[in-house]
Design goal:
With 74 residues, the chain is mainly alpha-helical. The chain is built from three helices and two strands; from the N terminus they run βααβα.
Length: 74
C-alpha cells in the first residue's frame, strides 16, 4: 500500500534560482562556462525534491538516538 504521508514532488523553481540559471546560460553562450559545467548546473536546478512530513524526518534520529544535525554526517 502506498504511504499517504508522503507529499507530492515539486518542480517549481524560485526566482533566485531562475535568475542564476539565466545568468549561467548567458555565461555559457559567451564561452565562459563550458558544456560540462552547464550540464551540472542544469541537473542541480531541476532536482526533484520530495517534501516529507516532520514525523518522517524525525523518525530516523529517534530510532538511532542521534540528533538530526549529526545524522547526515553519520
Amino acid at each position: 500500500m502506498k504511504d499517504l504521508t508522503v507529499m507530492t514532488t515539486t518542480k517549481r523553481r524560485g526566482r533566485i534560482l531562475s535568475e542564476m540559471h539565466e545568468t549561467a546560460r548567458g555565461l555559457h553562450a559567451a564561452g565562459l562556462i563550458d558544456k560540462r559545467r552547464m550540464c551540472e548546473l542544469d541537473a542541480l536546478c531541476y532536482l526533484d525534491v520530495e517534501e516529507m512530513p516532520p514525523q518522517k524526518i524525525k523518525a530516523p534520529s529517534e530510532a538511532t538516538y542521534i540528533s538530526q544535525a549529526v545524522l547526515p554526517l553519520a
